Amino acid sequence: MKLIDESWLDADGVFETLRTYQNKPFAFARHLERMNLGIKELKIPAPSNVEIEGKVNEYLASNPQASGHLRIVIDRSGNLSISHNLLKPISNHLKVVVVDQKSIKGLLYKSTNYRERLQLRRDAANASFDDSIISDGTQIVESTTCNLIYFSNGRWF
What we know:
The protein is α+β, with helices and mostly antiparallel strands and about 160 residues long. It has helices spanning about 5-10, 30-40, 50-60, 115-125; strands at about 15-20, 25, 65-75, 80-85, 95-100, 130-135, 140-145, 150, 155. About 30% of the residues lie in helices and about 30% in strands. The chain is globular.
C-alpha cells in the first residue's frame, strides 16, 4: 500500500467494510449512505457514489471471491482505496459486554480513527470478554471493530 498523505497517520478518513456473496456486495447502498455521513461531517472531497460503485465493480471483477470481505476507504484528500479478501467464517460464539459510548468520533459512520474503539476492546479483554458492543444510549450501534447482524424470529437485524 502506498502512503498517499498523512491521513493514515492521523486516522483521518472514512471506510466501510461489507460482505460479498458470489462477488456481489451486500447492502451496498446502505453502506455508501453511512460512508457519506462521515464524508460530510469530515468535509472530505470524495468521489461520487456512482464513481465509487464503478471502481468497486472493476475491483471485484479483477479480485473475485465467492464469500468475501470488501473494504472501501476514502482518506481526507478524497483518495479511494479498495480491497477484497476471502472471508473466513467464525465458528465459535463471542462473549461481549455492552458499553454506552456517545462520544466516539464517527459513531454513526466508520472513521479510520480507531483509538477509542481499540481501547474499548482492550477494556473488554481485561474484563474477560471478547469484545464490546457499542450503544449510543438508546440502541446498539456496532462492536468495536465490526458490524452486528443477527437473525431472530425469521428476520435479519
